[in-house]
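CHAIN AND CONFORMATION:
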Amino acid sequence: MTTTLTTSPLAPLLDRLFAQADAATSPALAGISREERERLMHSRTEYLDFYGRLKDLWLPVSRETGTLLYLLARGTGARNIVEFGTSFGISTLHLAAALRDNGGGRLIGSEFEPSKVARAREHLAEGGFADLVEIREGDALTTLAGDLPDTIDLLLLDGAKALYGDILSLMESRLRPGALIVADNADDSPDYLARVRSPAGGYLSVPFSRDVELSMRLG
C-alpha cells in the first residue's frame, strides 16, 4: 500500500516545516495580555484583527493530529475535503497526501492572511500536491459559502474558534452520511462542542487526542 506520508519528498518536508513552526515567534502576541487574548479568540467580530496579529505564527496541528488527519482521510477513502484555516499548510499536506494515496480528489482550503496563502502554496508545490489543492484567500465565511463539491467526505476546522459553528453550518447540507469533522483546539469553541455533542444535533462526537473533537455526520 502506497504511503506518501512517510516517504520523500513529503516526510523530510514535514520535518523541516514542523521545526520552523516550533521556532516561530510573534512580537505582536507578546504585547497582548492573556485576558485580551482570550477575549479576542472568542470574538465573532474581531477575529480577522486577532489572527492578523498572529501572521508570523504557524499555529499548526500537532504531529499526532497531522497523522490522525492522514489516517482518517485515507481510511475512509475521502475524495472531497474542506479545510478551514490553512495557515502555512502543514495540515493541508497531510490531507493532500491521503488524497494522493486514495487515487486523487479535491481539497479546498481557506486562509485570510495573504502571506500564509503564498507560503502554503509553495509548500504544496514542493510536496507535489498543487494539483489536488485549492486555497481560497479571504474570510472563510465568504470563500467557503459556495462552489463546493456536492458531497464532502471530511471537514477540518482549524481557524478562528468562534466561527466553528458558522463554518459547520455552511458545510452541513453537503456532508455525506458518515462524513467526518475534525475540530482542532475544540475546547476553545464551547458552542460548537455543545452542538455536535447534542443527541439531537445529527452528529456522533467524541473528544480525541488532547483537545481535538472527532465527529461523524449521521445523515
